[in-house]
């Protein structure tokens, strides 16, 4: 029986490309705001009852997410670098995303215009997300971050 050629995974309809672009902006914007302590802007990228699974906790809703964010020490510099981002539109109003986050962290006070010393990334996280289209645009309905690598002695 002859096999049918598989669909080119890069061939997407214009609407799928628009969805993929908009959802990728949500992911990138979220971590940009995270690194700049803009918690209100982060919450704008979540549905009101969305859930963020991070550090072993399920943070459901804006109030719970904000409560956890406000516990972050302010005397640090953190950068989340998003890579390998893939967005898969499912329907006209839902999509899923997978990505990696390389996290760089410097603990302690440092001037805004100074370069923070570093030995390498603090960790690598694998991210998955469910996104939904709302009247205000695309938003996270769920996001899960799982540690894949942490700084420390190699084995």
TrEMBL record:
CDD domains cross-referenced by the UniProt entry: NTF2_like
Domain annotation SnoaL-like: ranges: 16-141
Superkingdom to which the source organism belongs: Bacteria
Coiled coil (residue ranges): none
Gene3D superfamilies membership: 3.10.450.50
Pfam family, one: SnoaL_4
Listed name of the protein: SnoaL-like domain-containing protein
Organism for this UniProt entry: Pigmentiphaga daeguensis
Upper classification of the organism: Bacteria, Pseudomonadati, Pseudomonadota, Betaproteobacteria, Burkholderiales
